[in-house]
Design brief:
Chain lengths: 90, 456
């Protein structure tokens, strides 16, 4: 039995969780990358019509969310005392 | 929810230092009389080597090394925490699971270069791979083959290995390159002798970023049946690599240039036709006898994860980095004149931009760019004051070679960082040029090369 394609609300929930996790990163470069990559990936995958491919992309997104959550914790444990120059100058 | 609680507790308990009572022996010990060379970090900035910066510089030196991708770190951590077995232990779970991880990493690396996992040998980095390739191949075939062809712009480890071979009595031809950094195929053809045992040409240069015509060189090597070695450390994960299309027999790969950990690399060795090498590390016969020593599972898993990521992200990263490179170059050219790009502009990896600024002194430019982490020349040669040998091989004038700056753009670089780098570079160059009497003379129209400098 094929895995059903994710519903619109599920996709939006995943998108929001990924962006929320991205905001938690204390490293400037990784934070910006996670936000940007998430938006670009969801935008690119928004044109998928085949339900199997959509389900595969969704489950890939969920596993990326798990990775992002764990690494946000690790990065916050080892935050350097001084921030990046990009975060200091306005 | 639980993780938030856990991290806040951890942060509170682990970072608070225990109070030191005054007049106690602990207080005396805590005051260090010697000035330390460690960076003094406090919330107002970092002070190291007499320089004070208000924050961590923005990183534009991707050719020296690249930050470890969080997804790669995630793959590596279990092998430092609970799965710490030696992959060569055959008798228990720790060894079996570690071995499985190493083999799966091997196939991840192999699929990025379109090779078979049996052709990959893990080493400690591209330098070791280059040593094995150059010295190992020539020592193995030393009875019949006494000649090696390489270029003048190779990485120092290849050139040094060749110099070592020269001392042993081999002949080495260092091919000159054209002013755009590319190797001339006819020069290569004419340098080939009947006793040529190896041709070593790097795929993407670390200093100027030019991409050599690999397929054409591979064709020549196939025609003359000479093993072709390439140092693909900078090329891996950035340009599509196919060992069959390029017809390489040996390829050096590095982990820390593809957002993986430092201290690991891989050597591709062709099986059909088989290339044989004399091992440089002797021992228990691991890695098919080519490189003995325990395979570092966490590092190897990291390299495998980095290669798999690179395969998925190559197209996306390339598009983005190309856009950023154009932004950087146009931004600098819009505000400054006398900016020269070193190396071919067409056959170039987009993430490497090597610029020379005329009438500006290189050391002072770098000293003023403390908020941007860039390099001039390559990290390996930056300790000495002489200008980079790569730029000299391109025929760049001494004064232009001294002012070259290499901007390295990567996966994690943002548009704002590029804009800030443009701003800082332009400001510094303008400041230096204003102070420069040479620049004044040029503005008045005097041709500097025609000046007769008098002795005082």
């Amino acid at each position: 039995m094929a895995i059903p394609a994710p519903s619109r609300s599920e996709i939006l929930a995943l998108f929001r969780s990924l962006l929320r996790t991205a905001r938690q990163y204390t490293d400037y470069n990784v934070r910006e990358y996670t936000k940007r990559r998430t938006s670009d990936a969801f935008r690119r995958n928004s044109h998928i019509s085949d339900p199997a491919a959509a389900a595969a992309a969704f489950s890939d997104g969920k596993s990326q969310l798990e990775v992002a959550r764990r690494q946000a914790v690790v990065y916050s444990l080892y935050t350097p005392k001084v921030k990046s120059i990009m975060e200091i100058h306005t | 929810m639980a993780t938030k609680l856990m991290t806040s507790i951890l942060r509170r308990t682990s970072l608070k230092p225990s109070p030191v009572r005054p007049l106690s022996t602990a207080a005396a010990a805590a005051v260090s009389p010697l000035p330390t060379a460690e960076p003094q970090e406090d919330p107002t900035g970092i002070s190291i080597k007499g320089v004070k910066i208000s924050g961590r510089p923005l990183y534009l030196d991707m050719q020296a090394t690249s930050p470890v991708d969080p997804r790669v770190l995630d793959a590596m951590l279990p092998f430092y925490l609970s799965r710490y077995g030696n992959p060569h232990s055959r008798t228990h779970l720790y060894g079996w699971e570690s071995d499985e991880a190493v083999e799966s990493a091997r196939s991840q690396v192999a699929s990025l270069i379109n090779a078979s996992p049996k052709e990959i040998v893990f080493t400690s980095g591209a330098t070791e791979c280059n040593n094995i390739s150059v010295k190992g191949v020539m020592h193995f075939y030393k009875d019949k083959k006494r000649h090696v062809i390489t270029t003048q712009t190779e990485h120092k480890c290849v050139l040094d290995s060749c110099r070592h071979l020269q001392q042993e009595g081999f002949d080495i031809t260092y091919l000159p390159v054209r002013p755009d950094g590319l190797v001339d195929l006819d020069t290569l053809r004419s340098a080939i002798r009947p006793d040529t045992g190896l041709i070593s040409i790097m795929a993407v240069n670390n200093e100027i970023g030019v991409i050599q015509p690999m397929e054409e060189i591979g064709e020549i090597c196939k025609e003359f049946k000479i093993p072709f070695h390439t140092d693909a450390a900078q090329a891996l994960g950035k340009i599509p690599i196919d060992v069959d299309k390029w017809n390489v027999s040996l390829m050096s790969l590095s982990g820390h240039k593809v957002y993986g950990p430092k201290g690991v690399g891989a050597l591709y060795m062709r099986r059909r036709p088989r290339i044989r090498v004399e091992p440089q590390m002797n021992g228990g016969g691991q890695e098919r006898g080519i490189r003995s020593g325990t395979v570092p599972t966490p590092l190897v898993v990291g390299m495998g994860a980095a290669c798999e990521l690179a395969m998925k992200e190559m197209e996306y990263d390339e598009e983005r980095i190309k856009g950023l490179q154009e932004r950087l170059l146009n931004g600098i050219r819009a505000k400054l004149d006398g900016v020269v790009v070193n190396g071919s502009v067409e056959r170039r990896y987009a993430g490497n931009l090597n610029l020379s600024f005329a009438y500006v002194e290189g050391e002072s430019l770098l000293m003023g760019l403390k908020e941007v982490a860039v390099s001039s020349g390559s990290a390996c040669t930056s300790a000495s004051l002489e200008p980079s040998y790569v730029l000299r091989a391109l025929g760049v004038d001494e004064d232009m070679a001294h002012t070259s700056i290499r901007f390295g753009i990567g996966r994690f670089t943002t548009e704002e960082e590029i804009d800030r780098a443009i701003e800082l570079t332009v400001k510094q160059v303008v400041k230096l040029r204003e102070m420069s009497p040479l620049y004044e003379m040029v503005k008045e129209g005097i041709d500097i090369k025609k000046i007769q400098w008098s002795q005082h």
